[in-house]
Amino acid sequence: MQRAFHELIRAAETAAASLAKGPVTTDVAPAKVRDALARYDFKTPVPLLELVMQVTQLLQRWNVHVTHPRYFGLFNPSVTTAGVVADALAAIYNPQLASWSHAPAAQEIERLTLRWVAATLGPFDFANFTSGGAEANLTAVLAALTRRFPAWGAKGARAARGATLYITSEAHHSFSKIAAMTGLGREAVRKVRVDRDARMDPADLERQLKRDRGAFLVVGTAGTTSSGAIDPLDAVADICQKRNIWFHADAAWGGAAAAVPRLRPHLAGIERADSVTCDAHKWFSVPMGAGMFFSRHGDTVRRTFEVGTPYMPGRPEGADNPFEVTAQWSRRFIGLKLFMTIAELGEAGMIEQIDRQARVGEILREKLQAAGWRVVNRTPLPLVCFTRPRLKAVPFLREMHRRQIAWMSSVRIAGGPPVIRACVTSFRTTAQDIDAVVEALGGIASA
Question: According to CATH, what is the number of the domain 85-339?
């Protein structure tokens, strides 16, 4: 074990020292990777030390390095050392978080951590860690169904005929999957119009709800995947409160901004949501996966997942058994990596780390505009969508990746033409990285 962990530490140090200087992306055919893996027939044992070195080489060679400072892609962050150590500790002790009595220390570490995050968002009396944002969003839909249709838990979709939920075209696509998984059907998902900044149009939401008696949930997004748009949460909250409809704020990425005093006003209204999704494995910079779900209706959530078993330990006084109040049963110690990251950085350090990425995003926006690019989105979050006349996004990105300049993606905002999408996801990204990338992009555009 000592030798294996020594090799693991060496690999981590090598990655930290060389990653920024190496390639950000890879281009390899599936067949080539499969050929390299053909040596593992699982009949011949491989010494652990050799295995660690071999897997390290595979991941180094054939991987889009999402922890690279010039990875401007999806919400995959560089990760803190504390988070990496925490994941190893969680694996070593392997606590079972289904019941409180099996892992008291782990349970209360998670409760403490969730209370800190909740304090930045609003007055939520229930919180738990999830596998990711999709599970947190699923929890919101199930809880909203339980409140709106009391027989939902017993009869399922039969008790909720005509049930509908409202999102925009810019909302996360997990809600389409959730509608199918719950038996509501994808046709139960209604789309609300967006304005020129890709934000939900409250007037259109109001118009649609007036003629829909089955509406049970409205989703407002705080930081859309495509453009970082933040829906008018206060206005959505007003409408939902008036009609007694569950208001869910999907802040999987953008929710971290609530911890930053200068950014918090942009999320005004999130504290009025009935539930909130926020992912620690995005802007809080911990390893995947670490989603979080918050709600002002703990009793409703408990009814949603209530179950009786003869073989599980009973509920302790003053605490929940997670298997009785969440979608998961057996669960890993998800919250340790966020706890250790916040504890090591301190509250001020955590806030500064989030804020610094937002400021680097502002630098990216300013540098692109100064270089003649047209920025097409407006958001206080570090996500910039940009283009130029006659720019063909796909060939442009292909050349960017070939030259190892950076990793970005293309996106269509509210059904518009493809544009380039760049999101600052790493706390290691600097103003110097931005200067180098913007200069190199100009070289591709003029070629």
Answer: 3.40.640.10
